[in-house]
């Protein structure tokens, strides 16, 4: 596995007025995650990659991010949630149960 | 696993003149993959998602795409390669060995 944890943030922006992750500070969340991962020395091959992504098609649960290869989906609310995902999951490998995306929520 | 196969294409564009995937028809490859997956009825929850992504940080091997949860990386050349990835990997679960990204190639 090239990256131990590869997290993708939906940063999709829509022009048609439909709700999307970008309206819920997804960019700020991505920036925070990237900065925290870097600050903790976790970034790079064999470690963690924080990635921009287009629509992940689970808009009803947004804003969302997904961590692979484990396939864990998060619905976060604020930047403290991001810090917790970094510390618990990306650093220590422990899923943050309270932020898990409800399985039935899709587009 | 929300998606059986979740493929991310690096569509990164750089302003500073550095080489990046977008210079090698990454957008066309993404479009082709998305269209083929849809045409074959493979798209959606429980099946396949074709996703845009920012820089995947393996520029030296670009243009690249990564398939999760299996963590298989591809360096493709043309649209026929994309068709083969769709048919072989995304449809039938068989990795396209000849297109695998060399493990040592990173940024």
Automatic annotation (TrEMBL), chains A, B:
| InterPro entries named among the record's database cross-references | Thioredoxin-like_sf
Q: Please give the name of this protein.
A: (2Fe-2S) ferredoxin domain-containing protein
């Amino acid at each position: 596995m090239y990256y131990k944890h590869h997290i993708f943030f939906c940063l999709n922006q829509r022009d048609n007025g439909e709700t999307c992750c970008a309206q819920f500070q997804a960019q700020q969340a991505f920036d925070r995650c990237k900065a925290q991962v870097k600050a903790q020395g976790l970034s790079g091959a064999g470690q963690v990659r924080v990635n921009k992504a287009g629509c992940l098609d689970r808009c009803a649960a947004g804003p969302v991010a997904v961590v692979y290869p484990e396939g864990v989906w998060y619905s976060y609310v604020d930047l403290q949630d991001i810090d917790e995902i970094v510390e618990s999951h990306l650093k220590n490998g422990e899923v943050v149960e309270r932020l898990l995306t409800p399985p039935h929520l899709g587009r």
